[in-house]
Write a structure and sequence with these properties.
The complex is a heterodimer of chains A (318) and B (439). With 318 residues, chain A is α/β, with parallel strands linked by helices. Chain A has twelve helices and nine strands. Chain A folds into two domains: 142 residues, 3-Layer(aba) Sandwich (Rossmann fold), CATH 3.40.50; 150 residues, 3-Layer(aba) Sandwich (Rossmann fold), CATH 3.40.50. The chains are: A alpha/beta (318), B alpha/beta (439).
C-alpha cells in the first residue's frame, strides 16, 4: 500500500510520531554506517516547478541512502515551458513508470491535485503557501532531540506567516503534538483570520517570545516587499529580528531555528544564527532523515527495527 | 394548434396572480389565463400540483461566443437555458473579441435566431468601454440600436471613477441600465477565494469583502449623482447588501442580483481546493449568507441570476489559484432556488418567480416576465414541478461545460416544460401527464 504525504493537517498523532521516530532510526543507521536494505528497482521523480536547492538535495540524499533511484525534472527546459498542463505532466510521469513523486509547485493545493492524477505515492515538497510537511518533520525531530518532547513546549514562529508553508506545516505538527504555537509578526504579515489555524497571534516580540522554548524565524521574502508588506526592511529588522536582545524574552535555553535560506542581518543576526541557541545545521541534517522516513513510509514500507516495536506486528510490504 | 396547461398553480407576479387555473396557448400566443375555455384542445398537460409561470429571465449568462466556443456556444448555451426554464437570457460581453461594437451584436442575434439554437430570446449586453479596458467608452448608441439591453464591463470593472461617471451619463441618455460587477481590483490581484479563516488555512490569497464593498459604494454614489440605472451583479457580502439597501432608501435607481451559489455555499465548501467552487465574487461566510436571505426577503435583492459561467474541463483541472472563476448555472438555478429559498420559507412561490422572471424583465425594459395575453412577443411559459426530487448530474446537462458545484446534490423542484413560441423543452417525467386527444 502506498501513501501520500500531502500535508501535516490531515495526519494523526500516531503517524506523525511514527515518521519522527522512523527518521531517528534512519539517522542512527546512517551515522553509524549500518547497512540499510536498499529499496532497489524503485524510481522516484523529483519534480520541482519552483527553485529549490536544499530541499531537492535533501531528497536526493535521502533517496541515495535508501537505494532509490532519482529522476530529476525541473520546470525550466521541460514541457512545462511548452505549455503543458500540470495534469498532463503528472500523467506523463506516471506512464514513464516512475514509482513515486516528490513535487514542489508555486500553487497551494497542487500536491493534492498531483496525487489525484499520479495515483502512486506523492510527497509534497512545498505547495504555494499551504504546506511543507517534510520541513516540519525535520524541525520536529530537531526539537525532540534537544528537548526530549514536543508536548507542552512554547514555539514562537516569527515573520511572514501569511505566505509561509513552513509556518503552516509546523503549526499543525507542533499543535497536534501538544505544543503551544504563537505567530509573531506585524499585522501586514500575519493572516488576519486564524480561527482555522492552530496558533495565536502576537504583534509584539516581548509578549510573543515570552517563555518560548523554540523561536523559529521565517525567511523574509524580499520579492514581496513590492506588495507593501512592510514599509522598510529596516523597520522589520528593528522590530522583528531574532537577535540577542529579543532572545532575552525567551527561555534561557531556547532553540533558534530557521528553514533557510537565511537573509542574514534581516530576520536573524549573526549571534542568533551561529550562537549556542542555533540548531539550524541540525535542521538541515535531520531534513534528510525525515525525508528518508517519508519516502520509506510513502512507498509502503512498514516500521523498521526499533520503531517496529510499537506497531504490533503489522507489516506492510512495499 | 391549441395547447392547454390544465389545473396548475398560476404564478404571475406581473398581475399578482397566485391561483389554480389553466393557461391556454393558441399557436404561438397565450390567449387565456385562469378560467379558460376547454374546447377544441389538441394537446393537454395536466399541471395538477405544478406551477405555471412566465418564462424565466436570466440577467447574467455567459454564452462564450465568439472566441471561447470550447467552453460554450450560443447553441449549447441556449439549449441549457431552455432546459432550465428560461425563455430570455442576457449574454455577457466578455467574449473574444469583446462585444463592444454593433457588428458583433448583429452576429450574436443572428446566431441566436438559428434553428439549432434553443429557441429563446437572447438579449445581448454590450461592453461599456472599448475592449473592456476601462478607458474609452464604446459606441453604446450604435450598440443600443443593434439591440443591446444593458451595458457592462463584466469582470473587468471600470476602476477610474471619471470614466464610470461618463459611462453613467451616457447610459442615462440612452436609457440603458449599467450592470456592474463591483470590485476594487487593487485589492484583489492574485486573489482566489474569500479572505478569511479558510483562505488562511489553505494558504490561498484572499479576496477581501472590502474590494466588493468599496466598488458597490462608489457605484451607488455615482448612480445617485447621475440618476443612471445601476444593476449590481452578484452581490455577496453583508456590507454590500447593507449599502445597496441604503442607496435604495436614498432614492438611487439601484437594483441587484444574487447567484444561487452564494446562498447555497460558504467558503468552507472549497474543501481541499475544489475548483468548481471558485467563483467571483468568492463564496463568503455564514454571516454573509444569512444577510443574503434577509435581503432576498425584504426586497433589497431584486433578482436571482444564474451567472452561468461555463469552462472546459481542462481549464478547471488545474491548481486552485490558476483556475478560472465561475461555473454553470442555467440548469440548476430553479432546483437550487426552490430547495434553498422557497421550500425553506425564505421566499414565497410568487416572490421566487418575481425574482427569476418579472423583475429581471422590468430591469431590462423587455416585454417578458408576464403571462398576460399579448404581454410577450410570443407565448413564454414555464411549468415547474416544485416537489420533484432529483439529483443534479452534470453529465446530463445541455451545457458544453460540466463544471458545476451542484453535482450530486439532491434538489427539490424542476423545470418540466418550457414554451417559447412553441415547446422548446419537455422533461421526460412530464410525458405521462400529456394527452393529445381533445376533451
Amino acid at each position: 500500500m502506498t501513501r501520500n504525504l500531502l500535508g501535516i493537517r490531515h495526519l494523526d498523532v500516531e503517524t506523525i510520531q511514527n515518521l519522527i521516530s522512523l527518521g531517528r532510526t534512519f539517522k542512527a543507521k546512517v551515522t553509524s554506517g549500518e547497512k540499510i536494505e536498499p529499496m532497489s528497482d524503485q524510481v522516484v521523480g523529483l519534480l520541482f516547478f519552483e527553485n529549490s536547492t536544499r530541499t531537492r538535495v535533501s531528497f536526493e540524499q535521502a533517496a541515495f541512502y535508501l537505494g532509490l533511484k532519482c529522476s530529476n525534472f525541473a520546470a525550466a527546459g521541460s514541457s512545462i515551458s511548452k505549455g503543458e498542463t500540470l495534469r498532463d505532466t503528472i500523467l506523463t510521469l506516471r506512464h514513464e513508470r516512475l514509482n513515486g513523486l516528490v513535487m514542489r509547485h508555486r500553487s497551494s493545493g497542487s500536491a493534492q491535485l498531483a496525487a489525484g492524477y499520479f495515483g502512486g505515492p506523492v510527497i509534497n515538497a512545498g505547495d504555494g503557501s499551504h504546506e511543507h510537511p517534510t520541513q516540519a518533520l525535520g524541525d520536529a525531530l530537531t526539537i525532540v532531540e534537544r528537548k526530549g518532547t514536543l508536548d507542552g513546549l512554547v514555539v514562537a514562529i516569527v515573520g511572514d506567516v501569511e505566505h509561509s508553508r513552513v509556518a503552516r506545516s509546523n503549526a499543525w505538527l507542533l499543535s497536534k503534538m501538544g505544543a503551544e504555537v504563537r505567530f509573531v509578526g506585524p499585522r501586514t504579515m500575519l493572516p488576519s483570520h486564524v480561527s482555522m489555524l492552530p496558533g495565536t497571534l502576537y504583534h509584539e516580540m516581548p509578549a510573543g517570545l515570552e517563555g518560548a522554548d523554540v523561536v523559529m524565524a521565517l525567511r523574509l521574502q524580499r520579492e514581496r516587499m513590492g506588495e507593501g508588506m512592510v514599509s522598510s526592511i529596516d523597520e522589520f529588522t528593528r522590530n522583528y529580528q531574532v537577535n540577542r536582545e529579543k532572545l532575552r524574552f525567551a527561555k534561557p535555553d531556547c532553540l533558534v531555528m530557521h528553514p533557510g535560506p537565511i537573509n542574514r542581518g534581516i530576520e536573524l543576526d549573526d549571534i542568533s544564527a551561529d550562537g549556542d541557541h542555533s540548531v539550524i545545521h541540525q535542521q538541515i541534517e535531520n531534513g534528510i532523515f525525515v525525508r528518508m522516513a517519508a519516502l520509506h513510509w510513502a512507498f509502503g514500507g512498514g516500521a523498521i527495527k526499533q520503531a517496529e516495536t510499537k506497531k504490533s506486528g503489522k507489516k506492510v510490504k512495499a | 394548434m391549441r395547447t392547454l396547461l390544465k389545473n396548475g398553480r398560476i404564478l404571475d407576479p406581473s398581475q399578482e396572480l397566485d391561483m389554480i387555473g389553466n393557461v391556454l396557448i393558441e399557436g404561438d400566443q397565450v390567449i387565456e389565463v385562469g378560467d379558460t375555455s376547454t374546447d377544441d384542445i389538441d394537446e393537454t398537460y395536466d399541471c395538477t400540483g405544478f406551477w405555471i409561470t412566465p418564462g424565466l429571465v436570466d440577467l447574467h449568462t455567459h454564452l462564450r461566443e465568439p472566441g471561447d466556443t470550447h467552453k460554450e456556444t450560443i447553441i449549447t448555451g441556449t439549449q441549457a437555458a431552455a432546459a432550465g426554464g428560461y425563455t430570455t437570457i442576457c449574454t455577457m460581453p466578455n467574449t473574444n473579441p469583446v462585444l463592444d461594437n454593433p457588428a458583433l451584436i448583429d452576429f450574436i442575434l443572428d446566431r441566436a435566431a438559428s434553428p439549432e439554437a434553443g429557441g429563446i430570446f437572447v438579449a445581448p449586453v454590450g461592453a461599456l468601454t472599448v475592449g473592456m479596458e476601462g478607458k474609452h467608452l464604446a459606441d453604446l448608441a450604435a450598440m443600443k440600436e443593434a439591440g443591446i439591453v444593458a451595458a457592462s464591463d463584466e469582470q473587468f470593472p471600470i476602476q477610474d471613477s471619471l470614466v464610470m461617471t461618463k459611462a453613467m451619463q451616457t447610459c442615462l441618455q440612452l436609457d440603458l441600465p449599467i450592470m456592474a460587477h463591483c470590485e476594487d481590483t487593487s485589492l484583489t490581484r492574485g486573489g482566489a477565494m474569500n479572505e478569511g479563516a479558510v483562505s488562511a488555512m489553505l494558504g490561498l490569497k484572499g479576496i477581501p469583502r472590502a474590494a466588493e464593498e468599496i466598488a458597490v459604494m462608489r457605484n451607488c454614489i455615482l448612480s445617485l449623482n447621475t440618476d443612471c440605472r445601476l444593476h449590481v451583479m452578484r452581490v455577496s457580502t453583508w456590507g454590500a447588501v447593507a449599502m445597496i439597501r441604503q442607496a435604495k432608501y436614498l432614492g438611487a435607481p439601484v437594483t441587484c442580483e444574487v447567484n444561487p451559489m452564494h446562498f447555497t455555499f460558504t467558503d468552507e465548501a472549497i474543501g481541499e481546493f475544489q475548483t468548481q467552487f471558485k467563483t467571483l465574487p468568492p463564496l463568503r461566510t455564514r454571516i454573509d449568507m444569512d444577510s443574503l436571505y434577509e435581503a432576498l426577503q425584504d426586497g433589497t435583492i431584486d433578482v436571482i441570476a444564474s451567472d452561468h459561467s461555463p469552462h472546459a474541463a481542462h481549464e478547471t483541472a488545474v491548481p486552485f489559484d490558476e483556475a478560472p472563476f465561475g461555473a454553470t448555472g442555467l440548469e440548476s438555478a430553479v432546483g437550487v432556488t426552490l430547495t434553498m429559498l422557497t421550500h425553506r420559507g425564505i421566499l414565497s412561490p410568487l416572490e421566487t418567480i418575481r425574482k427569476m422572471s418579472t423583475k429581471p424583465a422590468e430591469i431590462l425594459g423587455m416585454d417578458a416576465g408576464t403571462l398576460e395575453p399579448g404581454g410577450t412577443p410570443v407565448a413564454a411559459v414555464t411549468v415547474i414541478d416544485p416537489n420533484c426530487e432529483w439529483v443534479y448530474d452534470r453529465k446530463k446537462t445541455f451545457s458544453k461545460s460540466k463544471n458545476s458545484p451542484f453535482h450530486g446534490m439532491t434538489l427539490r423542484g424542476k423545470t418540466m416544460l418550457t414554451f417559447c413560441g412553441g415547446e422548446i423543452y419537455r422533461d421526460a417525467r412530464f410525458e405521462e401527464r400529456r394527452y393529445t386527444i381533445s376533451e
